[in-house]
Amino acid sequence: MLKMLVLDIAYLAVLKGEKYLVPFLVRKGMSLSRAKQLAHGGKVRMLRDDTVRELCEILECMPNALFNWTGASDHRLGQLKQAPAIRLQAVLVEKSEAEIAQLWKDVLEREPRKLVRGGVVWLNVRRMMELRSAEISYKTLQRYGFSEMVARTLTDVKRRDGRVYLKMQMLTRLCEKLGCEPNDLYDFAGPEGHVLDGLRKTHVAGLDALIKRMTPEEVRRLLG
Question: Does the reported pTM lie above 0.85?
Fold first, then answer.
């Protein structure tokens, strides 16, 4: 198997107490044929933006959680799923048995969060390129190995209809070349309270203010 990102969502259904993924997706409004297709994530070769939004809504997660890395575990993208679990274990190991039991009880008794649907998810590769100080040009992506047609599509600021198909190999290449994760490549516009409402806010929150407070020497050190 190629070392790349693949769709892997079965574990997310298990975390929600669902043993079988396909019936769960169908109950949430997805057609049986699409549910079966997405359940075999390793065979999904491309994913549309609005499918990313739909899966995140149903599974109440961010784009990062939808993908798994098939290469070496020490690769940067190999930490997509392990990192949250490792951080959680680090927190729980400091708690007493009574505290963990109370936490578990609180989780089980909590009222389910109201599912907010709607909005549009789209690939905003240009913004990630800006953060990496890359030239905002389809020719930059061509140098990364993308065809001219694909490169133009990915850098087109008008393509915000959620209908852009992205091959898994392309998603992997974008993450590797731009030094980012899937969360960083997607943008969201939609109702408040949506699971994706904060998609592009937390990663760069306060970045402008931070840069303004930095001294020239600090900037030079960061830039190497």
Answer: no
Beta partners for residue 153, in sequence order: none
Q: Is 86 exposed, middle or buried (0-12, 13-18, 19+ CB in 10 A)?
A: exposed
C-alpha R_g of the chain: 19
Note the pLDDT tens digit of each residue in 44-61: 999 999 999 999 999 988
d(CA 29, CA 82): 29
d(CA 107, CA 171): 34
The two three-digit tokens of residue 150, written as one number:
């694909």
The Cα 101–Cα 107 span in angstroms is 10
Residues 49-77, buried b or exposed e (16+ Cβ, 10 A)? bbbbbbbbbbbebbbbbbbbbbeeeeeeb
